[in-house]
Design a protein that fits this description.
The protein is α/β, with parallel strands linked by helices. Helix content is about 25%, strand content about 20%.
């Protein structure tokens, strides 16, 4: 009901409405830097996992910026929550930028002139908590707001007398020149301090989510960061396994031959990961790391199967429309036939195929065509399905630990897991006849005395139809139709 009398036609400007979010059962963890300097009381959003469901939450907890080179996590915010081709979440974000540490040594001083009781400062580096106006009190004389569209600090004059003439304001600015890969790698101290990728350990115990994917666009092309991501995704909290999506660098890798050599020489070949190259551009000119586009596609694809990761993101339409090799590169890109040269080395890319731009490459980074490869390492969906099975088993039976291991409980676990396997076959995630067994070979008396019980699961993840081939032969039989009588 209107609170004032109305007579006429009216229009009001409301908050932006973003694309609805597709809810995925797959949880991706992004590690990087965010402009928390634009957030009041930012301390709790430094080196801590935070679950995000939409762009409003991202801006409320982490800020937002178009400077993705400085603030790498904003690329993920855009891809997942402000994407014309579809938004998908939730995601979990770990920011390592701490304005208390990563800031310029000297404060900035500027002169403000208020007009219509408002003044502005254009900056995404300002630390709002340090802003002050000489002889004025925030909350009494002025308030602060931030416009993410214009990247402006808005200072509103709320004083009774009004702020007139020029006034002097001071503030600190963030400086990331002393922030490096060690901040991303982080770790866990004996005293329980978590930083960087070490914060992945907090996702389950603080947020009650099991991490499935780890990404660090803008950082993962560094070998030390890549190795740390692999380690961070192994047996998280002693239990969970997460798949890594990383990038190969475009610097010094301008050709397919360059990047294949780099991948092998630097060991970007772990079976627990996808590696991507080059970068990509969307229709608005935004430049993305392919790891971001791959994670986006994985979540979107998994969401169509209730979070079961058995369908490859390869050959799915992406939001990118061009390959990108760097500002000074003269490389105009490559087609599918050349993209297959990357795929045969386990490198994921994007190509124009089927009248659309698609993600291209279904393999793990360990795959090498013609080489002896562990069968589970051929396709990324195979590894992700195995993680899905191990994580699921632990999650389903967590509450049964330390219960009496009666024969009934043993059978209950057998039946529950066999039903799970059968349901995965029914939906197409597994093929054949997967089984779970509890036998004497793996359960010696000595182990059972210790309370250790072992079930063995044998399953075959459904492989992608990587190639479809038809042999077409010419035959002269058709000429006989000239002499056949009509019916």
């Amino acid at each position: 009901m209107a609170t004032t009398y109305l007579h006429g036609a009216y229009g009001t400007l409301k908050d932006s409405i973003f694309q609805p979010i597709t809810q995925s059962g797959t949880i991706a963890v992004y590690v990087g830097t965010a402009p928390v300097n634009l957030v009041r009381g930012y301390a709790e959003y430094v080196n801590a996992p935070v679950k995000l469901d939409n762009l409003n939450q991202a801006r409320r907890y982490f800020g937002d910026s178009t400077d993705w080179e400085t603030f790498t996590l904003c690329e993920a915010f855009k891809a997942h929550f402000n994407n014309p081709d579809g938004n998908v979440g939730p995601i979990i974000v770990i920011n390592v930028l701490d304005p208390a540490t990563h800031k310029k040594a000297q404060a900035t001083t500027t002169q403000l002139t208020f007009a219509n009781k408002k003044a502005t400062i254009t900056s995404d580096k300002i630390i709002l908590d340090t802003f002050a106006i000489a002889d004025k009190v925030e909350g009494t004389d002025y308030t602060l707001d931030y416009d993410y569209t214009k990247q402006q600090v808005i200072i509103n004059d709320i004083s009774s007398a009004g702020i007139s003439g020029q006034v002097q304001a001071t503030y600190n600015e963030v400086d990331t020149t002393n922030l490096d890969k060690d901040d991303i790698i982080g770790g866990v101290t004996a005293g329980g301090v978590y930083t960087g990728l070490g914060c992945v350990q907090l996702v389950y115990q603080e947020l009650n989510w099991i991490p499935n994917i780890i990404a660090a666009p803008g950082w993962s092309h560094d070998k030390d960061v890549y190795d740390a991501m692999i380690t961070a995704g192994m047996q998280i909290n002693g239990h969970w396994d997460a798949y890594v999506v990383a990038d190969l660098p475009i610097e010094d890798c301008d050709t397919i031959e360059d990047v294949k050599t780099f991948q092998t020489a630097n060991g970007f070949t772990n079976e627990r990961s996808d590696v991507c190259w080059p970068m990509g551009v969307d229709s608005s000119g935004n430049i993305y790391h392919l790891s971001t586009a791959t994670v986006w596609q994985m979540l979107l694809t998994d969401a169509t199967h209730d979070g079961v990761p058995f369908e490859s993101p390869s050959n799915k339409e992406t939001f990118l429309v061009k390959q990108y090799f760097g500002e000074s590169s003269t490389n105009r890109g490559f087609d599918q036939s050349r993209a297959n040269e990357l795929n045969e080395s386990g490198i994921t890319t994007i190509v124009y195929w089927g009248a659309r731009w698609v993600l291209w490459g279904p393999h793990t980074a360990d795959y090498k065509f013609g080489a002896v490869t562990e069968p589970r390492s051929v396709f990324d969906v195979s590894m992700r399905m195995l993680f899905y099975l191990t994580n699921g088993f632990q999650q389903r039976h967590a509450l049964q630990i330390d219960e009496p291991m009666t024969r009934a409980l043993k059978d209950t676990i057998l039946n529950t897991e066999q039903q799970e396997l059968d349901s995965l076959v029914a939906m197409g995630a597994l093929i054949g006849t997967p089984v779970i067994v509890f036998d004497e070979t793996n359960n010696s008396t000595a182990e059972m005395i210790e309370g250790n019980f072992y079930w063995d699961i044998q399953s075959t993840p459904t492989p992608p139809a990587k190639s479809l081939n038809a042999g077409v032969a010419y035959t002269d039989q058709g000429f006989s139709s000239y002499f056949e009588s009509g019916v």
